[in-house]
Every structure is written in structure tokens, then in C-alpha cells.
Amino acid sequence: MSALVALVPASLTGAGVTTTGEAILFWTLGPIMVIAALGLLFARKAVHAALSVVVVMISLAFLYVAQDAVFLGVVQVVVYTGAVMMLFLFVLMLVGVDTSDSLVETLRGQRVTALLGGIGLVVVLAGVVGRATYGPAKGLTAANADSNPVELARIVFGQYVFAFEVVGALLVTAALGALVLTHRRRLTARVTQKERADARVRNGHTLTPLPAPGVYARHNAMDVPALGADGQPLDISVPRVLRVRGQEADAAEYAARIDRVLAGGWASGGGAFTSATQIGPVGGTTPPEAADHEAAVVGAPVPGVHAPSGPQDAGDATVQDQRTEPKP
Amino acid sequence: MNALSVAAAVGGAPTGADFSHDTWWIWAIKAVAILVFMLLSVLFAIWFERRVVGRMQVRPGPNVHGPFGLLQSLADAMKLLVKEDIDVSAADKIVYLVAPMIAVFCSLLTYAVIPMGPQVSMFGHSTPLQLTDFPVATLYILACASVGVYGIVLGGWSSNSTYPLLGSVRSTAQVISYELAMGLSLVSVFVLAGSMSTSQIVDSQIRVWWFLPLLPAFVIYVISMVGETNRLPFDLPEAEGELVGGYTTEYSSMKFAWFFLAEYINMLNVSAVATTLFLGGWRAPWPLTAIDHGVLNTGWWPLLWFLAKVWLLMFFFVWVRGTLLRFRYDQFMKLGWKVLIPSALVWVVCVAVVQGVRQFTHLQLSTLLYVLAGLVIVGLIVSFLIPEKKPEQRAAPVKEFDPYADGYPVPPLPGQVLPPSPRAQRRMAVQTATDATAPQVTQEVPRG
């Protein structure tokens, strides 16, 4: 963009002649802008449409800069591309990557009304533009005599200061209106982080992060419960979703297998190096396929192998509501 | 703050750099030099950060490859280059590919308008150490930064995965909120310097660097520049403890390296902007300016001061990273919207009022500043007289010491005494029992 400023200095003379540089720029950017603008209309995904608008905006900024309206060009990018379109994207992204526009008309007669309104706007604009009269062109050198931003400031804050202030007031009112309309009164006291922490201690919840699943040396899958310090499988280490769906692997099965390995025998005989391919068990208890020599390295002694013990069962419920707590 | 020097500094209209003698090959040399400088600086910055953070955490950091481990980041870059490039099959292909390019491309644009030195002689041509400059150069920097964020936002969105999406949503909100504060803090520099062109702003700092008279704006800029570059304590878009890797989670190989590159170039960018706008740009620091009538402010010397200032700020980045913890998201937003933006607004209004009074009346700046200082002092005294708001009635303070208040083992506050331990109680009980020859021994069961 900076090179353009220097490449195309004072591209439009008083007589309105376009220089070669500007012509090249225009005929390069013009098709890009038209294609991008059509992309806005025909893109399936909302984010693609938004990106098309971004392309149009940035190309427009290039054209502004080429026509010596440097301030306008840069502000176009800062305000519209950097802030307004970013807000649009913010909303659109939350819709998700795979969703395309719904074409169902939610308000009856919406399209007809929009069409009529559009035609009306075109008529009004055509009337105003057709009747407008312009004075003779001063030329960009005269218009930018005291640097572009300064001259622009003279016009905006001198000649059009009233219109400028009115628009400012309108925008502030709109922002305040949005705030008022979306304001919700808080009915209950706000629960602070400290109070949450206190409550957690008082109710005997787990204070530390929950143990990670699958601390068996061979099976670090999400569905394999970890072993506690006492050698018991910890149910809370398996994500709640898996537990609710019944996709949790049977800890006892694994523990028994490890016991056998510790005792010096093969876990399930044979297929030592074939285990890596199995993906996520679907129907509850899927035993591990085979243990190889590494399994023998498992350090934790596994005494009583069966079933989760009492305290962890009790902890289960508390863990659930702990995880569903809303963030402050 | 030296009021007179401020008055003198803003008195004369600053003049910009003179590019009239530049030829196309001087432009080419400068542009290539900037590119090479950025890439080498990034390699150095990664090594620098790892070494400094290492030193702060009492460990050596990378020290194997090359002298002092200097080639470590080169080795890392090579590794990233030859790694397998994994494409996410569910990703939005084009956007997924374009996003890292946007990030890097936009980050490389900023240094074009950063003045690194005054007029120097380059192959017989007198030219400023700056690629280009125009009346709205500072706004152009903001524009490049705001377009660069599209890289992060689109990268997160197009990965079609939860954590990257969360990262990019956070990044959007972060940019919108912190760019406002950043822009507002720059406005006060524009007001005092009377220009938005970077070389003119540097020229307006002959007597005093703007960070002194505009200290609040400088502080706001420094905070928001850390937020803008997604660095700790504001690295929420890529918070590895919360979002795996944020927007970079699904990126690998060179595409990941581009994001990485963009982040470090952005650090250099915001440091250079802070240097140019607040720290006198390429001007030599105070005691050195006196040497030989300012010879250190001419020729190629200023490049040294410029780099020193930029790397001082880079050190600040690393220092902050080694010191502070990540903000919680709501605290982060609160800081942006409820602290930084209002204070930046108030400060801009103050600066504008002072500048307006000076412009439209014949008041001396020193008088004006004394009046303002008086007003501030009076305001402070009055604020001391206002009775302090009583804290809300919480639970009545417990007089006696509870060593397990709310289930935590807590130390006694000043004035409180720990109750005797169970063993001491037993001993005391035995003592009293033997004294009174009473057979009963009571023991309190410890709680918790």
C-alpha cells in the first residue's frame, strides 16, 4: 500500500485524466472486487461471504489510496475491516464451520417488502444524485495542500461539524439502546471465585484437578480409569460423558491382565505387537488386546482388582455437578 | 517533567523524512534489508526469550547448538520445514491455507514505515533509514495489525475443531477490546506531535521523549501491546493450559511455523512502534546526546539506539512472561473495557484540553501545568476528606481463633494465638490431673 502512494502521486489531474498506473491498478482490482462482491451473494457459508466483503473493503482501500485519499483508505481498513467485519465474524464463527444459510423465510412477505424498499431507495437516490450540481474540480494538489488528514479534518470538523455530531449522537444512542435492551437485572448475589473454592472445600469435593485417565503404562486411552495411590481404579478419572454413555473400559479387566503380567505370564497369549490398531471401544467393556513386554514395567501393584471402591462412588455425583458448574 | 522543554519541543513544526533522492534500487535494498532483518530478528528473539526465561527460572536454556546455543532456533525452524504437513480433512481448505499467510504477510508490513535512523549516505545517495512514510503512517500500522488478526481468527475457525474455534473467538474479542485502548493511547501522541507520520513524530521528540509527558498513555500502550500480541499474561487465544494450543492446535509443520513467525514479528512491530512514538525513535538517550554536539544522532549511529530500545522492550516482554500468570478471561475483559479504555479516554480529553487552551489562548504551558497540578492536589485532598465507604456487612468477625476456618488450616492473624496442640492439651490435662489428683482426662478431637 505504501508503494502505491509513491507510485501513483497525484494521479488525477484537474482535468480528470487517469494516469496509466492508476488504470492498471483499477483494472487489476476491479475484477477482483466484482468477483468478491458476487461471492458475497452466492457463497454458501456465511463466513465465506464475510471474507468476500473483507476482500472488497481492502481493495477499495487500495483504490482510495491510489486516488490520494490516504486517510480514507487507511481508516476504511482500521474501522470497517478491522472492527466492524471482525464483529460480524465473531458472530458468524459461533454458527459453526459446516452450517450454510437457511433459506426459509421466517417473516411472511419479507422478500417482497425488501424488494419494494430497495426499489424505493434506488428511486430516491437516483433523484437526488441526478439533480445534484457540482462545482468545478479543484484538483487533488489543491485539496491536499496541507496534507490529506489536515484538509479532511477542516471539512469534517468545519463545514460538516453539525452532521458529524448528529451521527455521533445517533451511534451513542444506538449503543446505549442495545445495552438497555439486553440488560438483565441480577436477582441473586454474585458468587465469587473465593466463595466457590470455599464451598468446594466445605462439601468435600476434589480440590485438585481430577486424575487423568489411563495411567496404566500400556493403555493411556480416555476410557481406561487411572489407578489411585492405593492401586484401586479411579472412576472419576474417566470423562463423565464416557461414563454416562457406558463407554468406560472395565478397570478390573485391565488390572487382572496386569496382575497376570506381573506374575510372569503373558496377558492374553500370542499377538504381542498387534494391539495398537484398536480404536475407542464402543460397547462398554472391551478388554485390551494384548500386552507386550512393556506391560511388565507397570509399577503399581494391583491388589484387590474388582470394582471401584466406596469413596470413589460417592465422589462420582459430586464430580458431576462440579463439572457442570457455570463459569463465573 | 520539564515543562519548558515540552513547550520548546512542541513549538516548532516537526519535519518529516525526505525521500526525494530515493531510486528504485534503494527501495529494493531497503525492502530486502527489512525482510532479512525481521527473519533474523525472529530467530534471535526465540533464542533470546528461551535463554532469558531460562535464566529467570534458574536453568540454562538452549546452549548446545552453536555458540551459546544461538543456532537452536535455526535448527527448530529447519525441523518445522521438513516435518510432515498434516491437513485436517474436515477443515475449510482454502481458508485453512490462507490464514497463516495473512498473519505473516500483515506482520511484515509494519516495519516499512518505522524510521530506524536519520538521513544516511547509501551508495552516494542521501536517504533516510526508512522505507517510506506518509501522513497517516501510524494509522497504517494499526490497519496492518487489525488485518493480521484475521489470520488468527480464520485459522481457528477453518480448523473445524472446538479448541481452535474457542481460541479464535477469544482472539476476536481481545483484538476489538484492546485495539481501542491502543488507538486512544496513540491519539495523545498525535495531538502533541501534531502529526501521524512516524518520521515527524520522531522529529517532534528532539527535546523530550513523549513517554515522560504522556506517561499514562505510554502505560496503556504497553499493556495493550502485550494484549495485542497474545503474549502472557494475555495469551488467552492460545492458552495451552485451557485450549491445548488455541488457534494453532490443528496446524503443523510450516503452517504452524508461520503463525509462530507472525507472533514474534508482531512483538518486534509493537516494540518498534512504542520506540518510535514514545521512546524517541532512533534518538540517542540523554547523556549521549551531549557528546560532540550530537554526533551520535547522525549517520548510522541511531540504528544502534533504535535496536537497543526495541530489544529493551523485547526483554520487557520476556520478563513479563517469566513473571506473571495468565489472566482469567473475565478479568481480562474487565481490565480492557473498565480500566484501560475509560482511562485512555479521560487522558485523551485531558491532553486535548491542554493543547486546545495553549492553542487558543496565550497561556504559558508552565502556568497551565502548575494550575493543573494544583487542581489535582486539591482534588486529592478533597478525596481524603470524603468518608471511606464502609465495606458491606459480611459475617460478624470471629474473635476467637479457628485454626480450621472453612476447612482450611489457617495460620493465626496478628494478635491471635494458636490453641495448644492435641498432644500439648493431653500433657496439660495430665499435668492438671496429677496436680489435682483427678482421674479424668479429656481430649479434644481435632477437626479436619
Overview of the structural elements:
The complex is a heterodimer of chains A (328) and B (448). In chain A, α3 (46-66) runs antiparallel to α4. In chain A, 54% of the residues lie in helices and 1% in strands. Among the domains of chain A are: 1-100 and 136-141, Four Helix Bundle (Hemerythrin (Met), subunit A) (Up-down Bundle), CATH 1.20.120.1200; 210-324, no CATH class. With 328 residues, chain A is mainly alpha-helical. A two-stranded antiparallel ribbon of chain A has the order 1-2. By secondary structure, chain B is mainly α. Chain B has one domain (18-361). Chain B is built from 15 helices and two strands. Chain B has helices at residues 3-11, 24-56, 72-82, 93-109, 137-158, 162-193, 198-203, 215-228, 240-243, 253-278, 286-289, 301-323, 329-360, 365-385, 422-436, and strands spanning 117-122, 125-129. Chain B has a two-stranded antiparallel sheet with strand order 1-2. In chain B, β1 (117-122) and β2 form a beta hairpin. The termini of chain B are far apart. The interface between A and B is large, with 39 and 43 residues.
Short description:
Chain A has 328 residues and is mainly α. Chain A is built from twelve helices and two strands. The longest helix of chain A has 24 residues.
Topology:
The complex is a heterodimer of chains A (328) and B (448).
Chain A: H1 2-7, H2 20-42, H3 46-66, H4 70-93, H5 110-131, H6 140-143, H7 148-159, H8 161-182, H9 193-202, E1 226-227, E2 233-234, H10 240-245, H11 251-262, H12 310-324
Antiparallel strand pairs in A: 1-2
Helix pairs in contact in A: 2-3, 3-4
Chain B: H1 3-11, H2 24-56, H3 72-82, H4 93-109, E1 117-122, E2 125-129, H5 137-158, H6 162-193, H7 198-203, H8 215-228, H9 240-243, H10 253-278, H11 286-289, H12 301-323, H13 329-360, H14 365-385, H15 422-436
